């Protein structure tokens, strides 16, 4: 299993737009075989940081999702929404493998 960690810098004046964007993506990741663990929006502290976590069975499965998402109408619409609203200023992506206890 591989977990993608997305670290966003968002426009704090467009939090409502970013939350809408987040709600668009959760079912899309699941549609392509991932398991979305949610978005995490600012509460206390920095008002321009947001996170997302989702997992795929393997890095290959994640790469397949990325390829298919670029051809999917719903995904393209979500990408366009973020671009139109400019709610995301920047982001970076890291990958982790979970440790879920000894088997």
Structural class assignment: alpha+beta
Q: What is the end-to-end distance?
A: 15 Å
- Tell me the name of the CATH class: Alpha Beta
Please give the count of helices.
3
Strand order of the largest sheet: 2-3-1-4
CATH fold group: Alpha-Beta Plaits
Indicate the mean pLDDT: 95
Please state the CA-atom Rg, rounded to the nearest Å.
14 Å
Basic shape: globular
Strand content: 25-35%
Q: Report the major sheet.
A: 4 strands, antiparallel
pLDDT below 50 for ≥5 consecutive residues: which ranges? none
Q: Strand-and-helix sequence, N→C?
A: EHEEHHE
List descriptors.
103 residues; Alpha-Beta Plaits; alpha+beta; NIPSNAP family protein; 3 helices; NIPSNAP
Write a structural description.
This protein has 103 residues and is of the alpha+beta class. It has one domain (2-92): Alpha-Beta Plaits (2-Layer Sandwich). The protein has three helices and four strands. The protein has helices at 15-31, 59-69, 73-85, and strands at residues 2-10, 35-40, 49-56, 88-96. The chain has a four-stranded antiparallel sheet with strand order 2-3-1-4. Strand 2 (35-40) and strand 3 form a beta hairpin. Helix 1 runs antiparallel to helix 3. The longest helix is centred in the first third of the chain and has 17 residues, at 15-31. The protein is globular. The two termini are 15 Å apart. The relative contact order is 0.30. The model has no long low-confidence stretch (mean pLDDT 95).
């Amino acid at each position: 299993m591989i977990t993608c960690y997305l670290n966003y810098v968002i426009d704090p004046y467009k939090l409502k737009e970013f939350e809408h964007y987040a709600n668009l993506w959760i079912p899309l990741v699941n549609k392509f075989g991932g398991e979305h663990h949610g978005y995490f929006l600012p509460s206390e502290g920095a008002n321009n940081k947001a996170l997302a976590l989702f997992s795929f069975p393997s890095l290959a499965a994640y790469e397949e999702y990325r390829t298919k998402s670029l051809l999917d109408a719903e995904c393209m619409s979500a990408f366009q929404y973020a671009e139109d609203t400019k709610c995301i200023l920047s982001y970076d992506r890291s990958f982790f493998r979970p440790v879920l206890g000894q088997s």
